[in-house]
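step: validate -> pass
step: tokenize input -> pass
step: predict -> running
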Amino acid sequence: MGFYYRLFGLTVESNRALPGLRAAASASSCDVRLLCEVLPPREAAASAGDALFVSAGRDENGEPSVQVWDLGGPAGFRFRYADGTEFCVNRAGREVSARWTEPSTLEDTCTYLFGPVFGFVLRLRGITSLHASAVAVDGSAVALVGPAGAGKSTLATVFARRGYGVLTDDVSPLIEGDAGILVQPTYPHLRLWPPAVEALFGSAEALPRLTPTWEKRYFDAVEQGASFAASPLPLGAVYLLGERQSAGAPRIEHVTLREALLALVANTYVNYLLDADMRAREFVLLSRILDTIPVRRVVPHTQAGKTARLCELIAEDVRRATPGATRAAG
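step: predict -> pass
step: emit ->
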């Protein structure tokens, strides 16, 4: 089809050039094939009956933000977003097709593709992902975990500008290997809202838009002279982003084992579409994280200018941690 990329530890072949990504060398085989502007016949989706999932969130017209149908058999699943963008993902997690309508663009479609859609592809392939950005500190991956708006990308951007490698943004795929739990790299972009761009760069216009139709911006680590960690790295520590405070922040806090488990379960990616096997794999992986890897809470300061100090605190904490030390306080 023409365009190859390395994303989420997978070789992806696409029939369209994907905006903002650097193409990889052509490959004799691929893990996932992507067809843009093509969907299987609508009749297949129409026969699926009730939606498997309907989001609680609605747009201004009362449409669900996203609906998902199980198409049955190898056909897999159909995603439909409120703006009319649709995806079909086959059950093996090997083929993805996408279609959108104006005024949406390929760039808009990629915001879904590189988030929940590929997050689900990974689930189908047996890979659990944290809702986290990740940076490289002394050869280890440091996961910055939190829901939308917690400041993951902002914190990762400050790390990148201080010389640390970018590994992932928003979706951090975890695989188990001889070196422990590894974080797979995604792409060298970090997505930021205009207030964060203004706080970090002096102007909300300092970075390019993620899409022509949306205000969100992106920091390209490579273009900005920072580094991208293009190979998997062992997960060295997990930091749960708490609410911003003015008193006594920034700081790092210990969390109980129960708090850590609940936070990690809440911040695995696409956890609203898990079947029993996916749940079981997730529980085994999260249990291993809690047994072997430090998990802390970080409390950012309300002032963006204090974010650099939080990066220093996290880097110092990672360096103090020793293999086999706790992880969450019991």
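step: describe -> Confidence is low (pLDDT under 50) at residues 43-48, 324-330.
step: cleanup -> pass
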